[in-house]
Specification:
This protein is of the alpha/beta class and 306 residues long. The protein has 9 helices and 10 strands. It has a domain of 205 residues: Rossmann fold. The radius of gyration is 29 Å and the shape is elongated.
């Protein structure tokens, strides 16, 4: 009888020990998720003193909303910071321009262009080019969803590049490139366009979290670039731009590679923590079942002995 009591007590201790170990591991992982920060702080993106610094302004928006003063001011700010600036107007903004953009080794890419939804998904955006749409052009890219038709006022249809195009069709790598997309909504919903540029190597992506007026995106982007010129980080320059559209409420925001890594890290930690919760509950249930089985067995033996 004494031996049976010892076995039951030992079973209880083992069950409790397993649960405690699982809870301890879960608490440790939770603490790591909250305190570990392996990602560097943002640094100023305009770097003076280096040779061959290049920036580009891709401007399809001038097809419907020309703004020569914006072009002049942004070009001036970048030139003062030591950048040579290339400008592509509406007639030059084609699918192939985007396909080859990474081969030019630009440190800053500013896309002054519309965005559009594709495949009927409101949160899935594409970047509209100035290349007139034809079902007979870029046929393969259309079939696999890398380009799509987009209607821009006053009703003309143009090719638009999708996140799949950015990830898979752009040649080369956008390593350490700052990408500024001036169209609507690229940092809302699933942020596919922003994440695609980050996946392609961009160090940061600046865009809008909602609809924005053409005049206001010019105003805020001009202030953003001027703030970079004065040595601010991307995060500081976004704040300095005061980017809140008074008409539509869109706000200038940014996503950087560190934030993307942090998102992935958080997802992994959430998965691990969920698994540990399931494990701890399972151990608790198993311990309880084992203990109850031992007690029932002991009780039956006592009855048989009696």
């Amino acid at each position: 009888m004494a031996k049976r009591r010892r076995r039951v007590a030992e079973s209880r201790r083992l069950g409790k020990l397993g649960v405690l170990l699982a809870l301890l591991l879960m608490a440790t992982l939770s603490s790591l998720a909250m305190v570990v920060s392996p990602f560097p702080a943002l640094q100023p993106h305009l770097i003076t003193g280096e040779s061959s610094l290049k920036a580009v302004l891709i401007d399809s928006l001038s097809l419907t909303d020309p703004d020569p003063l914006f072009i002049s001011n942004v070009t001036h700010s970048l030139s003062v910071a030591g950048y040579s600036v290339d400008y592509y107007g509406p007639s030059q903004v084609t699918v192939d321009l985007f396909r080859n953009i990474a081969l030019q080794n630009y440190r800053i890419v500013i896309i002054r262009g519309h965005t559009a939804t594709y495949q009927g998904i409101p949160t899935s955006l594409s970047i509209v080019t100035s290349e007139s749409y034809s079902s007979l052009k870029h046929v393969y890219e259309q079939l696999i969803g890398q380009v799509a038709p987009a209607i821009v006022r006053p009703g003309n249809t143009f090719f638009a590049i999708t996140p799949a195009f950015i990830r898979d069709a752009i040649k080369g790598n956008l390593r350490d490139t700052l990408v500024v997309q001036m169209g609507c909504g690229t940092l809302t919903g699933n942020r596919d366009i922003a994440n695609a540029f980050i996946d392609k190597g961009a160090s940061a992506f600046v865009g809008w979290n909602n609809t924005v007026s053409s005049w206001y995106t010019d105003f805020a982007t001009q202030k953003f670039v001027a703030s970079l010129e004065h040595g601010q980080t991307v995060a500081e320059a976004v704040v300095s731009a005061d980017g809140l559209d008074p008409v539509y409420g869109g706000k200038l925001a940014f996503l950087d590679s560190a934030a993307t890594m942090q998102d992935q890290f958080n997802i992994r930690m959430t998965t691990i923590l969920g698994s540990m919760i399931i494990l701890s509950v399972s151990l608790l249930v198993i311990g309880r079942l084992v203990r109850d089985d031992r007690v029932r067995t002991s009780f039956k033996k006592r009855i048989q002995t009696a």
